[in-house]
Amino acid sequence: MNTDPIADYLTRIRNANSAGHKVVTVPASNIKKELTKILFDQGYILSYKFDDDTSQGSIKIALKYDSYTKTPVIKRLERVSKPGLRKYTGCDTIPRVINGLGVAIISTSKGLMTGKRAKQSKLGGEIICYVY
Q1: 87 alpha-carbon distance from chain centroid
Q2: Rounded to whole angstroms, how far apart are CA atoms 102 and 130?
Q3: Environment class of residue 6 by beta-carbon count within 10 Å: exposed (0-12), middle (13-18) or buried (19+)?
Q4: What region, left, alpha or beta, does residue 112 occupy, with left being phi > 0 and alpha being psi -120 to 50 degrees?
Q5: Is 93 helix (H, G, I), strand (E, B) or coil?
Q6: Three-class SS of residue 17?
Q7: Has residue 116 got a pLDDT over 80?
Q8: How far is residue 6's CA from residue 1's CA, in Å, rounded to a whole number?
Q9: 74 pLDDT band (50/70/90 cuts)?
């Protein structure tokens, strides 16, 4: 049993990136599917596919690399709110990641969204992770 499935999800992507893998497979859940959609919309991953062949299902994520230098597009994935210490923010204090170059992913009452979109919607919530 995994105590923090989101940290496991981020670690699998981080490890596959550093090893130079093209595709990584992670166990699926609703929050992981939403995280994957956000990463795709923000341009951090190439593509994804939800497989429901097992009872839990899985997510296949195609990682994105720079075409010239072959370095991963995702430089860092950082888990902010942990099960032992939750981090919450209001809509007026949503952090900017690297002066707007990165993305903060926030869990709001309307679902998961980027920090910029949460600020536009005037929603606060739990800071899940930073991606840059």
Answers
A1: 16
A2: 7
A3: buried
A4: beta
A5: helix
A6: helix
A7: yes
A8: 13
A9: very high
Instruction: Specify whether the CB–CB gap between 112 and 105 falls below 8 A.
Output: yes
CA 20 to chain centre: 18
Encoded tokens for 97: 């990641």
The structure tokens 């090893």 sit at 19
Confirm if 119 and 130 have CB atoms less than 8 A apart: no
Tokens read off for 58: 């899985």
Could you tell me the pTM of the whole model?
A: 0.93
Instruction: With cut-offs at 50, 70 and 90, classify the pLDDT of residue 53.
Output: confident
Distance (Å) of CA 124 to CA 31, 87, 106 = 17, 11, 8
12, 65, 80, 85 from 71: Cα distances, Å = 17, 5, 24, 33
Q: In what order do the strands lie in the sheet with 23-27?
A: 23-27, 58-63, 45-51
Q: What percent of the chain has pLDDT over 70?
A: 99
Q: What is the pLDDT of residue 2?
A: 77
Residue whose C-alpha is closest to residue 81's, from 113, 129, 31, 34: 129
